[in-house]
């Protein structure tokens, strides 16, 4: 049993020391106490050479589960270290949905060998799962559902379950279908064993049950589980035919992946980015967004350059200029973060976006006026100039208003264009607040001070 009080940092230290001292028995002792997900986290936390050495010590019977829990990029490096027989053995016994998750990462020859090793039913289920979009309910669902008809007795259901000899893990509900396989409701296992055997399924089943369309987006499925407090849910096609079920543990993975994606995308990174990837590929990925940011910085610099004469004559403008851009950037980032969160949770639509826009304009005006007065007073005390105080106050109000508008409008426009707002929203917002802030401040100074 793993020590639940031991932190990841502690385990990493033990692994590093054991690998450094070549004490493989100590490595095996650490791994023996860990769950596959914990081993996956350790693998993701090691540099490439140490990662491969640790992977070679992972017991073969948990290889498949560990591969499911690591990020795609790490999984690719681990698969490269395995031979065909090891990969096929690791995938043996996997649930169809789990196998589909790693199947497309397998070398072509391994994938073909694996398909040949399956029976006709397994192959058909895998091909069906792979036919669905990657972020859909069809990819999440398990096909090991037990279905019974509503017109049979509980005794018949019990005989059917005994005949099967075993039932899928975490089966607390039986799916109820008609003769054509169309979903009708669910029968809780607790009712099956606590009511007289002569009663009919139809008398005890739940008819009002939330079913999930097979093409529903995984993020929407997660929202449904959260809002309806679901533990499991049936998956159906457009005609209502029962296809499988989704369990809460599958949804926990979706929520975790979405949170990681949002965090990484805010920095312009892929959620599958390997923290310990080699220097060159990591630098190449990050260079793209650094280049985009450089272009926007040059745009802001070009705006400043248009007011070179004003800056030459009034040093106070150069001193105070960053305040305008910084305040606008912070205000816009607050709005942008809330907007992205609202879009992720499905709280923002065409019906309420205009109200949100008006709200953010109101907030921008109130905060703009408040902090404009504060900055104006400080500028007056610092530079003894009422004109400079008034100009920076006006520029602050203008820029914070622009920041509020951009904070709502940018993610809405990006989503409509099919671009992830978390990935590029901050870059665009920073450009807007810098350009508007510099232009407003220096433009007003040119008009009224020169």
Name its key features.
mainly alpha, MgtE N-terminal fold, CBS-domain, Tetracycline Repressor, domain 2, 3 domains, 3-stranded mixed sheet, 22 helices, extended
Topology:
Elements: H1 8-20, H2 24-32, H3 36-44, H4 48-55, H5 63-69, H6 72-80, H7 84-91, H8 96-103, H9 108-117, H10 120-130, H11 137-140, E1 147-149, H12 154-164, E2 173-177, E3 183-188, H13 189-194, H14 201-204, E4 212-213, H15 218-228, E5 232-236, E6 242-247, H16 248-265, H17 279-305, H18 308-313, H19 315-344, H20 353-383, H21 386-416, H22 421-449
Parallel strand pairs: 1-2, 4-5
Antiparallel strand pairs: 2-3, 5-6
Subcellular location: Cell membrane; Membrane
Organism: Halomonas shengliensis
Transmembrane segments: 287-305, 317-340, 361-382, 388-414, 426-449
Structural class: mainly alpha
pLDDT < 50 runs, ≥5 residues:
none
Helix content: 55-70%
First-last Cα distance? 76 Å
CATH superfamily of the largest domain: SLC41 divalent cation transporters, integral membrane domain
CATH topology type of the largest domain: Tetracycline Repressor, domain 2
The whole-number mean of residue pLDDT values reads 81
CATH class of the largest domain: Mainly Alpha
In percent, how much strand structure appears in the residues?
5-15%
- Structural domain tally: 3
Strand order of the largest sheet: 1-2-3
Keywords: CBS domain, Cell membrane, Magnesium, Membrane, Metal-binding, Transmembrane, Transmembrane helix, Transport
Transmembrane segments: 287-305, 317-340, 361-382, 388-414, 426-449
Family: Belongs to the SLC41A transporter family.
Function: Acts as a magnesium transporter.
